[in-house]
């Protein structure tokens, strides 16, 4: 019972951070919509979120200290695996946020992070979502459409999957680095707060690049949008 009482404030703090991030992102998105274009200072970046699956439910069976330790270990791993041009931006509860000007180094880093977590039985499964687009940096944080899309894509990814919006494939284009990834089309998805359907792909390591018209992979998407 004591651990549950400790866990409550911790989860409240995490939810507050997530709510604050969502409100800040939506404020920037609203400004972009009103202006009809990205805000001044915006630049092309690729954004990724990775979060621990079922983290909140863990609070029912483990102590607040263990939850904090898991979140801290994830942040530490992400920092250790991150090197320029990829930037570790912040943690949001049980999630980490990474940004890079180019898609390929970010995809490589996120895939490594998922692989490392999957080999550690002391971790819950990790999932990640990635999107590219114009975003603006403010006080060390990033805001804009790709931030919102990447967050929503993460919420519909299956455990162990790295799911990307079609904007990532478009940003990568025919660059030589594209040959280092395999793509499977996961279908279009309507995401909360995002206008229109977003075409999603699961990305894996590999030397072959599959066509965007491949069959949808049912195990790439979670059952419902967050």
Automatic annotation (TrEMBL):
Signal peptide: none
Superkingdom to which the source organism belongs: Bacteria
Enzyme class, spelled out: lyase
Keywords: ATP-binding, cAMP biosynthesis, Lipid-binding, Lyase, Magnesium, Manganese, Metal-binding, Nucleotide-binding
GO biological process, one term: cAMP biosynthetic process
SMART domains cross-referenced by the UniProt entry: CYCc
CDD domains: Nucleotidyl_cyc_III (cd07556)
Cofactor(s) this protein cannot do without: Mn(2+); Mg(2+)
InterPro entries to which the protein is assigned, alphabetical: A/G_cyclase, Adenylyl/Guanylyl_Cyclase_3/4, Nucleotide_cyclase
EC number in record: 4.6.1.1
Pfam short name (any one): Guanylate_cyc
Single GO term (MF): metal ion binding
Database matches in PANTHER family: ADENYLATE CYCLASE, TERMINAL-DIFFERENTIATION SPECIFIC-RELATED (PTHR43081), PH-SENSITIVE ADENYLATE CYCLASE RV1264 (PTHR43081:SF19)
Family of this protein: Belongs to the adenylyl cyclase class-3 family.
Subunit description: Homodimer.
Function: Catalyzes the formation of the second messenger cAMP.
Protein name: adenylate cyclase
């Amino acid at each position: 019972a004591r651990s549950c009482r400790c866990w409550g404030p911790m989860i409240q703090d995490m939810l507050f951070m997530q709510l604050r991030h969502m409100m800040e992102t939506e404020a920037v998105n609203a400004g972009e919509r009103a202006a009809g274009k990205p805000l001044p200072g915006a630049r092309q970046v690729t954004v990724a979120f990775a979060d621990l699956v079922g983290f909140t439910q863990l609070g029912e069976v483990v102590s607040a200290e263990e939850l904090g330790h898991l979140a801290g270990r994830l942040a530490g791993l992400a920092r250790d695996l991150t090197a320029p041009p990829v930037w570790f931006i912040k943690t949001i509860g049980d999630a980490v946020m990474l940004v890079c000007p180019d898609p390929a180094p970010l995809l490589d880093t996120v895939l490594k992070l998922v692989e490392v977590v999957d080999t550690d039985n002391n971790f819950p499964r990790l999932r990640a979502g990635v999107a590219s687009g114009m975003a603006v940096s403010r006080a060390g944080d990033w805001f804009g459409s790709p931030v919102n899309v990447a967050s929503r894509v993460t919420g519909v990814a299956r455990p162990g999957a790295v799911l990307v919006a079609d904007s990532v494939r478009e940003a990568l284009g025919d660059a030589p680095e594209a040959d280092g990834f395999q793509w499977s089309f996961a279908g279009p998805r309507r995401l909360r707060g995002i206008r229109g359907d977003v075409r999603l792909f699961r990305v894996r390591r590999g030397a072959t690049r599959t066509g965007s018209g491949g069959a949808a992979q049912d195990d790439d998407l979670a059952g419902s949008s967050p």
